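Hi L.,

As promised, DUF1361 domain-containing protein:
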Amino acid sequence: MFKQLQQSFLFKLYFSKTELERLLILSCLFSMGLTAVRIVYTHHLQFAWLTWNLFLALVPYLITRFAVQNISWIEKRWKFVLLFWVWLLFLPNSFYIITDLFHLEIANRVPLWFDLALIFSFAWNGILLGVLSIRMMEKMVQLNFPSIKEWQFVYPLMLLNAFGVYIGRYLRYNSWDVIADPFQLTEDIIYLLLHPLRHRLDWSMIVCYAVFMTLIYLAVKRMSKALW
């Protein structure tokens, strides 16, 4: 019986990981568990889509983990540049879940505190996955381009990250629309860039989230160094 358990997918998924990854798995399972409880209790699939958003938030982390485990994608510069741009396309998905807090509202059958815990747990997992992924990518960038300073990597990255969150939340584009609908996406981005005064609130949101995400990343990074 125990041997069968050892061979099971969940056993391998959990016990073959680092302690941090095990905590991430438990945290993600907690979020999905809250969603399952809500569905059973209300007989409604509201917030079930958060699981899909969490999967998308996991993609950039998996990309960087893949690179770490396959060193040729770091050593060969053309491979690394390709990997970086694919990673960058998916990175906003990790922080996008923060904006899912917009969906928090008083429901008749579900306590507000429960929905707050549910949505925030997903947002928290997205932030953790994003921060860890960015940290791994920062190390890989510094290996390939040693002259790049922390601020030269983090600040522009977070601005692009916040821009991606904006076009996902308000323009309703997905990462794959770069391939599926590139012309309309490009047109909307150019219009936003050419008319910043017409989109003052939009750019305010982008800058605000860029600063917010930068502070989160730098704070977690500094805390990890201080604790060790």
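Residues 26 and 182 are 37 Å apart (CA to CA).

Thanks again for sending the construct details.

K.
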